[in-house]
Structures are given as structure tokens and as C-alpha cells.
Specification:
The protein has 639 residues and is an alpha/beta fold. Helix content is 41%, strand content 15%. The chain contains 26 helices and 21 strands. The strands form 6 sheets. It has a 6-stranded mixed β-sheet with strand order 2-3-1-4-5-6, sandwiched between helices. It has a 6-stranded mixed β-sheet with strand order 17-18-16-19-20-21, sandwiched between helices. Helix 14 crosses helix 15. The longest helix is centred in the N-terminal third of the chain and has 17 residues. It is elongated, with a radius of gyration of 35 Å. It starts with a strand and ends in a 13-residue tail after the last helix.
Length: 639
């Protein structure tokens, strides 16, 4: 809604423009009337709509045509004043003033007009019989008010209607010629109906109507008032009420009725509560509320946001199969101006055997969007009406901004729920297969994926010590000379090579040495396509020797060429490493050379107690015992 209103009064000389302004201000008819009143500002606290209002007078004797044009361009509403006892001033409304105003305003941004019949105290008859045909001819005319500056009749009402014409304009809502709502208004009200239809049954029951009423007008409807509203609709529409609830047709009819009865502020109150501006577009402030994200912090959905998204899923999963069919997805996004999910989403999250997005996949996609592009997530939640349904100031209340990653490392614990794993490797090394296997797709199902539906992301859940976490895999394009900050910013790195391709591992080795050798980010080498014959790599060191030299876990064998869905164990380990990066086996554990398992047993407890949380010690002990048994004590140890 506008923050102020500028009203311009124009008309023939001696019709009483200045007198109207002075009578409003002083609440009495002036003894002496100047040629032109100075611009006045009425403070917000004394106006019905609580908006500052500027009132500007025009005088042909004191102002030039250029000055008049400037005032017309600045005005939000123009009052064309005529004298009810002067036929010439009425004729000038159509022969001079309306054409003049139209010539000086853009066709797409016409200001609303109000016809003001002054000096009603001088006649016994109304001028409305003459004015009504003019109002029907020009759709920019909002209303006509007959008043008297001398006896103060309808003076306050005049300026209230002028203010109302700006703040609650009829033009965007209603077509008087057709006597029906405009398409853009129908589109906005249809979205509002769908958001308010909490069970998605196509009607607003009494509970939903009361929630809508309380949301928009801060008060519920009494039971009798609810029945009265439905009875009005029943009398005028055969399909406006169904199963004692209001249908979309009935909802639209009610708003048509409000506007036809001059209560368009009611419809505007609803539209603005649901985020619409004067052009019936959702405002930037509504879609993109401010949210501060410090460096090295990530964004996640909080508990209330997941509850809301669960309710949206349940609302549209009509067949209760815990998956969204293409038709159900389309229905869900009818409140959006566009389809936000492309065909690649089916290869980004988990789907069922029919290729439909599962409940888990649905929540994963929302998690992915929030992590990668929180502004987009805020926009989507805005379309769904999160802040309205959950009665929050904005959808920013759905977002948790995690603390700085450095603090997590210092405290050796994290409260984050989403962890990012960047997957690097040479072309055809098996990266895409590694991502799709995380979604439960074996090689046979992966071969069905079309090239134009492929995704560089895969996200699903894993369980680490009983806690559900999201692991986000991102396939990085193979060009290590130009890795961006986004390619490097992650919680764990997978370096993938093809065991059957002798040139594959070299890329992993070079990437690690150039970008990750001094990084605190955990790195894991994946020996992909492990079902194939392993060929000696052309690199100077074998993958096992390379990992041993750089204190990395031995290469992890992986294949998606399985009968069933590939195992998730490796992904769980990756999530664990992402959660506890400081708890990975330290350099101390890898500085051991052969002196026997007895020395390992003597060294390990002290190092484990200092470096590793209790929950990880067993895993680390197993890993140390699997390393080379040739040991030399590290400088830290006193053995």
C-alpha cells in the first residue's frame, strides 16, 4: 500500500476548489477566499486510512499550463470540481478536463478521477442524473460526490473517497463494462483460495473460513454470520456453496459483490494480507524478506518449516501413496506463477519405482533449494503462504542460519543438519553413477536417464549415530585448473577414479595436491566401477600408495552395478566425516611405521583420547590396525 496520498483539485474558476480545501482544514466556510490555497498535508493519525495526505489546489489565474501538467503527473488522484448550479462547468468535465488529464498521463498509469459537485446548498435537485452517463463513459472515474463547502456537507467524505481511490483502487480489480472481476484479480484471489483451502478439497469449510477471516481481519465470524454469508451466495449462485462450504466460484462472487457495493477496501485488505501490491503482483518485500547470512554459514529449514512442508505434501498426496504423481506436483504448484521444478529433480532426489517423487525426495528437494539458494526458497514459501498459515511476520522465520564452520571445528561438534560433499574426478570416472547410487538407483536404472534430465546434484538422508542428516552430493565438472570457491567450499571431498581406466587416477592426484593437500576438509578417494578388472594406473604412485603417503583412507571400492539398490554405507561414512572433520584419524596415527602391533596398542589409546570423540574411537582403532604395521613413533608420543 502507498505510504502517502497526493490529491489534486482542478476545475473551472469559481466552482469552489479553494473553498473546499479551506472548509476541510478550518471546519468552517471562509469569509475570504484566496485565488489559490497553499498545499496542505494532513497527518496520518487524523486520516481514516492512517496515511499522510497532501492536498493541492489549482488556479488558472496563478498557474501556467506547464505547472498544471507537472501537478497532474505528481498526483495520485484528481478531483474534477464542478458547480451543481452551473451547466457549463459540468460540460467542461468531458469537453476539457478529462481529455486534458488523459493527454498528460500514460495510458497504462492513469490516475483515478473523482467528480465533485460543489454548491449543493444552492439547488434542490441532484446533478447525478447528468453525471451518471459521464461515469459510465469513463472507467477512470471512481465515484461522484455532491457536497457544499458552505455548509460543510460531505467535505470529509470527499477527501476520504479520494484517499480510498488511491489506496483501494477499483481499476485493477473490476471491469465496470463487463460487470466482472478482471483476470489478474481472479488469478490472485484463486491463489488465495487455494492457500486457504487447507485440506485441498475445493471448498472452504467453516474452520477454513474462520481462519481466513481471522488472518485478514483479525476477528472470526460468528456462526450466524457464516451462515448469512453462505446464504447470500446460495441465493445468487447454484454452485457457490457445496457440502456447506464455499467453493472458488462462491468466493469470487463474494468479492465481486463487495466491489459492486463500493466495499473494494475489503478485497484489497485480503489481497494485501496475502502479499499483493497495487498492480496485483506479489511484492518483493513479501517474496524476499531480509535475512542476514554471515560468511561461512549455511541455511537450513527449521522444524516449523518442515512441519509446514509436510502439511503441503499431505494436502496434495490425494492417493496417500507417500509420493507425488506428475498431476499432484502440478496441482501443488498451481499457486506459483511458474513451475519451479524441472525434469532433473527426478534425478536429484529419491523417487519410487514409477519415477514419482517420494515424501523423502520432496523434503530433500526443499532442503537442497534452501542450502543452495535461500532467496529462492523464501520465494517458494511465499507462494505457498507459509507466513500466513503459520502466522509469522515473514517466511524468513522458516530459515535457520547455522553458525560459522570454524566454531564447529573448534568445539568439535555441530548442530547442522545438511552437509555438502563435492565429487571430483576425470570424465567418465563414475561420478554421475556415484550420485545416482545414493538415490537408490543401480546401473540398470541409471541407463534409463535421459541426457537432458541429468542432474549435478543428489541429496538424501543418512543416519549418523541415530541422527537423521542430509548429505548433498555435488558433481564438479572436471577442470581442476579453474576450480571456483564454490567447487572448494564443502564439508567433505570425494575424489573418484575408474579402476578400469589407467589414466583416471592422475586427475584425482593432481586435484588433491593442488587444492586439498593443506586443507582441513576431509578427502576420500573412491575406486569406482570396482566390479570391473582393476588396471594399473599410469600415475607414478598407485592409488593405495598415494593415499598412504598423504595420510588418506585407502581407496574405497564402489560399484552401482548391483542387482538391488546400492548400499548406503559409504554415504553414511562420508556424512560422519563431514560432521566430525577434526575427528578423522590425525597425522599422528599415520606417522607409524613398522615396530609391531604391540606399539600400536600402546600409542593408540592416548591419541584416541586426545583427538577422537568416544563415538568414533572404535572406527579409528579399526582403521589404524588396517594400516601398515611398519611403525616409527611420532614425535608427540613418549614411547
Amino acid at each position: 500500500m502507498r505510504k502517502d496520498v497526493r490529491i489534486l483539485l482542478v476545475g473551472e474558476p469559481k466552482v469552489g476548489k479553494t473553498s473546499l480545501i479551506m472548509s476541510l482544514v478550518s471546519e468552517e466556510f471562509p469569509d475570504e477566499v484566496p485565488l489559490r490555497a497553499e498545499e496542505i498535508t494532513i497527518p496520518a493519525d487524523v486520516t481514516p486510512e492512517r496515511v499522510p495526505t497532501h492536498i493541492v489546489d489549482y488556479s488558472e489565474a496563478e498557474q501556467s499550463d506547464e505547472q498544471l501538467s507537472q501537478e497532474i503527473s505528481k498526483a495520485n488522484v484528481i478531483c474534477i470540481v464542478y458547480s451543481v448550479n452551473n451547466k457549463k462547468s459540468i460540460e467542461k468535465v468531458t469537453s476539457h478536463w478529462i481529455p486534458l488529464i488523459n493527454d498528460r498521463t500514460d495510458k497504462d498509469s492513469r490516475v483515478p478521477l473523482i467528480l465533485v459537485g460543489n454548491k449543493s446548498d444552492l439547488v434542490e435537485h441532484s446533478s447525478m442524473e447528468t453525471i451518471l452517463p459521464i461515469m459510465n463513459q469513463y472507467q477512470d472515474i471512481e465515484t461522484c460526490v455532491e457536497c457544499s463547502a458552505k455548509n460543510l456537507k460531505n467535505i470529509s467524505e470527499l477527501f476520504y473517497y479520494a484517499q480510498k481511490a488511491v489506496l483501494h483502487p477499483t481499476g485493477p480489480l473490476y471491469c465496470p463494462e463487463e460487470k466482472e472481476l478482471k483476470p489478474s484479480c481472479i488469478k490472485a484471489l484463486t491463489r488465495i483460495f487455494k492457500v486457504s483451502d487447507l485440506d485441498n478439497d475445493g471448498i472452504l469449510n467453516d474452520n477454513e473460513l474462520n481462519f481466513f477471516q481471522r488472518t485478514c481481519f483479525n476477528t472470526p465470524l460468528a456462526p450466524q454470520a457464516l451462515e448469512d454469508v453462505k446464504n447470500v451466495v446460495r441465493r445468487n449462485m447454484t454452485d457457490g456453496v457445496k457440502d456447506n462450504g464455499l467453493t472458488l466460484e462462491g468466493f469470487l462472487f463474494l468479492h465481486t459483490l463487495f466491489i459492486q457495493r463500493g466495499r473494494h477496501e475489503t478485497t484489497w485488505t485480503v489481497l494485501r494480507r496475502f502479499g499483493y501490491d497495487d498492480d496485483l503482483e506479489l511484492t518483493q518485500e513479501y517474496l524476499f524478506p531480509l535475512i542476514k547470512i554471515p560468511p561461512d554459514c549455511t541455511t537450513e529449514l527449521n522444524h516449523n518449516a518442515y512441519l509446514f512442508l509436510q502439511s503441503v505434501f499431505d494436502k496434495h498426496d490425494k492417493d496417500r501413496d507417500c509420493a507425488l504423481s506428475p498431476e499432484e506436483v502440478k496441482d501443488l504448484f498451481k499457486v506459483f506463477p511458474y513451475m519451479p521444478w524441472g525434469p532433473d529433480v527426478n534425478n536429484t532426489v529419491c523417487t519410487n519405482d514409477q519415477g514419482w517423487i517420494t515424501y523423502q525426495g520432496y523434503l530433500s528437494q526443499w532442503t537442497l533449494t534452501t542450502y543452495l539458494d535461500v532467496q529462492r526458497s523464501l520465494e517458494y514459501l511465499g507462494y505457498l503462504g507459509y507466513s500466513i498459515i503459520y502466522e509469522q511476520e515473514s517466511q524468513a522465520a522458516a530459515i535457520t542460519v547455522t553458525r560459522n564452520k570454524r566454531i564447529d571445528l573448534q568445539k568439535k561438534q555441530t548442530q547442522r543438519s545438511v552437509f555438502r560433499c563435492n565429487v571430483l574426478g576425470a570424465r567418465d570416472s563414475g561420478k554421475s553413477g556415484f550420485l545416482q547410487a545414493f538415490l537408490g538407483k543401480n546401473l540398470q536404472r541409471q541407463r534409463l536417464i535421459r541426457d537432458d534430465h541429468k542432474s549435478l546434484y543428489a541429496i538424501s538422508t543418512t543416519y549418523v549415530y541415530g541422527q537423521e542428516k542430509y548429505l548433498l552430493l555435488h558433481e564438479v565438472m572436471p577442470d581442476f585448473d579453474y576450480l571456483t570457491e564454490a567447487d572448494l567450499a564443502c564439508d567433505v571431498v570425494c575424489l573418484v577414479y575408474d579402476v578400469n581406466n589407467p589414466s583416471s587416477f592422475e586427475y584425482c592426484a593432481k586435484v588433491y595436491k593442488q587444492y586439498f593437500i593443506d586443507s582441513k576438509t576431509p578427502c576420500v578417494v573412491i575406486a569406482a566401477k570396482s566390479d570391473l578388472h582393476e588396471i594399473r594406473q599410469h600415475y607414478s604412485l598407485s592409488p593405495h600408495d598415494f593415499c598412504r603417503k598423504h595420510k588418506l583412507h585407502p581407496p574405497q571400492p564402489f560399484t552401482s552395478n548391483t542387482t538391488e539398490a546400492p548400499s548406503k554405507d559409504l554415504y553414511t561414512r562420508l556424512t560422519t566425516m563431514a560432521m566430525y572433520p577434526s575427528s578423522q584419524p590425525s597425522r599422528s596415527l599415520y606417522s607409524l611405521t613398522q615396530r609391531g602391533v604391540t606399539v600400536l596398542c600402546q600409542l593408540t589409546p592416548r591419541l584416541l583420547a586426545r583427538e577422537v570423540p568416544v563415538c568414533l574411537r572404535e572406527n579409528v582403532m579399526l582403521h589404524v590396525c588396517s594400516c601398515s604395521t611398519n611403525v616409527t613413533p611420532h614425535a608427540d608420543s613418549q614411547t
